[in-house]
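Why do we care about 3D structure at all? Because function follows from shape, and shape follows, mostly, from sequence. That is the central idea of this module. The next example makes it concrete: a single protein chain, its amino acid sequence, and then its structure expressed as tokens.
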Amino acid sequence: MKKIKIRVDDFELRLIIRALVEWRNSLLKEDKPTEDVDGLLIRFCTQPIQLNSESHSRMVFKKRRSSGYFT
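And the structure:
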């Protein structure tokens, strides 16, 4: 799997996470599996954050995983 870095500001990161949560909730309503969306949410919510002083954006790195559930 190719790893990429994405530069997002605080608003964009919250928007991505909210969209994933809403997608997950719609999958739950349709009784469809949510493991892939759960994995993405975990990655976005648990990644180390590096502040970029020039634009005050965040670098989201894909390095570690943790387990958990979202409701």
